[in-house]
TrEMBL record, chain A:
SUPFAM superfamilies: Periplasmic binding protein-like II. It comes from Marisediminitalea aggregata. This is PBP superfamily domain-containing protein.
UniProtKB/TrEMBL annotation, chain B:
SUPFAM superfamilies: Porins. Keywords: Signal. This is Phosphate-selective porin O and P. Residues 1-22 form the signal peptide.
Length: 147, 395
């Protein structure tokens, strides 16, 4: 009986440690302003940018991040499938950098249309969309291996 | 009267700042939190068992980005936490942030000035009510009597974040010291002490690791600090010094609907001093403690919390029996430990607004004050309770 409990606990521990969140389903794409120029980012680099930890592009331009509200299903899907973290974890990181003088949280927009308009109009900006056709002034940034 | 005026001034400042337009280089943030609180059968927060409004936290912070390598950040707060810490305003942090290295996979920042200590799980924002898991943090690690010293120091700090094949690594190092108010000397030592305690230095190092796309976070931190005592002309203590060595281990796991976190610590404390009555003090003891905390997200807006927290002042005397023989006078045995169970709930009822409530039941009083001088102990019964409700707004 005791060994059965121990085995179950070991299996649960193994799953917790070695099984990350669901793999990316690629329904959400990273949208960047045309001035950004970077073509590919690793998943970890994307996470650093959306967590507010990378604040400048390699060319010295300020990174400006736009996200949807935490309750928006597209934001939830983006967090889970692209960043592979939960929305509350992202919010916790934003609060930490904002209230310790380390950076600024992303700007929250009301809709995908608003997101597209803001990214197109703001040099150095980045966001995400659930379509495969980038509007004028923007492009879809690839998520690949580390540069 | 003066207290209300200061509180009102800070609240007005924060409300005015919330309307300030933030441009690309300047950003403002702040918070106002007011609550009702009570410590029952203990003077931890209140002296008379009655509910009190001494649960005020008002803060405003700003960051100005000079260029892609340099920014300046600072925070001014007003606090009223009853007996937990010094009531009044203070500059929590004010530092120059130099981005020494900045690549996509690796960043290093140097902070010069009053830097924030970021070496424990919640220490980066332990002064910001809406970022804490509970109104009162577990006292084993986040001992309120040391709040200002633990939060920030004057000196330099380095922090680095690296994303590699093994995951994300955060390494932090700092060296500085914290100014101590005269009233804090009396709190740490004795109400009869006329001189000043000075922190000579505090040296800290910590590393946190998050395996690539895993929900685990693991870390440890080391702290070393020395203090010395400068006696007054007429004083009970002729000379004195103390040192602290601390090791902390931290773990956190985030699931979709719950979060588990725990920190364990070991503190080695050494005190030496000569008193006017011919008493010489030479104490070397190691304390141990830690907490385990479980938070469950009942919905998008409601979170429940359960936590156990424990601290033993001397790992060789966990029941406090040797306190009968304390060289400066006997101390009740239950000051040799402190075990606390906490339950709490918080509700985000509107955008940027939260209502939190919690209850704690505690056995022992070993983490209320330094267990050394009988006349500086914070009074408590062997078992005591804490109740707190707090309303928070932030921007």
């Amino acid at each position: 009986m005791q060994s059965g409990v121990s085995r179950t606990l070991l299996i649960v521990l193994f799953i917790l440690v070695f099984c990350p969140l669901r793999a990316a389903e690629a329904a959400i794409h990273i949208l960047a302003n045309e001035a950004v120029k970077t073509q590919t980012l690793s998943p970890a680099q994307v996470r650093l940018i959306f967590a507010g930890r990378t604040q400048f592009w390699p060319n010295g331009e300020r990174v400006k991040v736009f996200v949807l509200h935490a309750s928006n299903p597209i934001h939830t899907e983006f967090c889970r499938n692209v960043l592979q973290i939960y929305p509350y974890q992202l919010e916790r990181i934003w609060q930490r950098i904002t209230y310790s003088g380390q950076g600024d949280a992303p700007t929250i927009v009301n809709s995908i249309e608003d997101m597209v308009a803001k990214v197109a109009a703001t040099p150095g900006s980045i966001g995400y969309v659930n379509t495969e056709t980038p509007p004028e002034g923007t492009y879809l940034l690839n998520i690949g291996e580390r540069e | 009267m003066q207290k209300h005026a200061v509180k009102g001034f800070f609240a007005s400042l924060v409300v005015m700042a919330s309307g300030v337009y933030a441009d690309d280089n300047l950003s403002w943030h702040g918070f106002i939190a007011q609550g009702l609180t009570r410590s029952q059968d203990s003077a931890f927060i209140t002296d008379d068992n009655a509910f009190s409004r001494e649960l005020t936290e008002i803060g405003i912070n700003a960051k100005y980005t000079v260029n892609s390598s340099l920014s300046v950040a600072g925070q001014l707060v007003y606090l009223d936490g009853g007996n937990r810490y010094r009531q009044g305003s203070r500059v929590d942090y004010l530092f120059l942030d130099w981005r020494v290295a900045q690549y996509f996979d690796w960043q290093m920042n140097l902070h010069i000035g009053r830097y924030k200590n970021r070496h424990w799980l919640y220490s980066a924002t332990q002064d910001v009510p809406q970022t804490r898991p509970s109104i009162i943090l577990p006292q084993s690690v986040y001992y309120d009597g040391n709040r200002d010293m633990a939060l920030s120091s004057d000196g330099i700090a380095l922090q680095s974040i690296k994303v590699g094949d093994t995951g994300t690594w955060e390494v932090r190092w700092s060296l500085g010291r914290s100014p101590l108010a005269k009233e804090e000397t009396k709190k740490f030592l004795s109400p009869l002490a006329q001189g000043r305690v000075k922190q000579d230095f505090v040296h800290q190092f910590s590393t946190y690791w998050q395996p690539d796309f895993s929900q685990w976070e693991l870390g440890f931190s080391l702290l070393q600090s020395d203090f010395s005592y400068k006696p007054a002309e007429q004083d009970i203590l002729l000379n004195g010094s103390s040192s602290v060595d601390r090791l902390t281990l931290a773990i956190r796991y985030d699931s979709e609907n719950w979060e588990f976190s725990s920190e364990l610590l070991r503190d080695r404390l050494r005190y030496k001093g000569d008193f006017t009555q011919g008493v010489t003090l030479d104490i070397d003891k190691t304390g141990e403690g830690g907490y385990a905390q479980f938070r469950y997200f009942l919905s998008d807006t409601v979170t429940g919390l359960v936590r156990i927290d424990t601290y033993d002042v001397d790992r060789d005397d966990r029941e406090g029996t040797l306190l009968d023989l304390n060289p400066l006078g006997p101390i009740p045995r239950y000051y040799g430990f402190m075990d606390t169970a906490t339950v709490g709930v918080s509700w985000d009822f509107a955008k940027q607004m939260r209502l939190s409530g919690e209850f704690s039941r505690t056995h022992g009083a070993g983490r209320l004050s330094a267990v050394l001088f009988p006349n500086s102990l914070i009074q408590a019964a062997p078992y005591w309770n804490t109740w707190s409700v707090q309303l928070m707004y932030w921007f």
